[in-house]
Specification:
With about 140 residues, the protein is of the alpha+beta class. It is about 25% helix and about 45% strand. It contains three helices and seven strands. Strands 1-7-6-5-4-3-2 form a seven-stranded antiparallel beta sheet. It starts with a strand and ends with a helix.
């Protein structure tokens, strides 16, 4: 059994806005990085079961980068989705709380980096998402 890591944020925005900003590529490129020295220059999202999510992650200085590619397993439009990449899975839940929305991301830990480092990285991305969504 894999070790699951969960990160969460409460966003001051409607569930629809949170869903849209989390899934539309033009928005994904604005928040999808854990550190200010990195960016996400491109993203595509074919949001259907079997569809592909692809985000290019790069250091701004060009020293490194990678493609994050995943395939959707389940989708409940406006509410939740899950996807797989390599031998890992991620589940995202978006829960409207009136004028606020809670987003929870649960993912399988990988074996190369410490669990706490992974949690901090994914939480940093979610914090970027929160900041972007609340100010745009």
């Amino acid at each position: 059994m894999k070790n699951k890591i969960t990160v969460t944020a409460t966003i001051n925005a409607t569930a629809k806005k949170v869903w849209d900003y989390y899934t539309i590529p033009a928005h994904i490129t604005q928040w999808n990085f854990a550190d200010a020295n990195w960016h996400c220059p491109s993203a595509t999202n074919d949001m259907k079961v079997g569809g592909t999510y692809l985000a290019r992650m790069e250091a701004k200085d060009g020293s490194s980068g990678f493609d994050f590619k995943a395939i959707y397993d389940e989708i409940k439009m406006g509410e939740s989705f899950s996807y797989s990449f390599s031998d890992r899975t991620v589940a995202v839940e978006i829960k409207g709380l009136g004028k606020q929305t809670e987003i929870t991301v649960a993912f399988d830990a990988e074996n190369e980096n410490p669990v706490e480092m992974q949690r901090q990285g994914w939480q940093a991305i979610l914090n970027n998402f929160k900041a972007y969504t609340e100010t745009h």
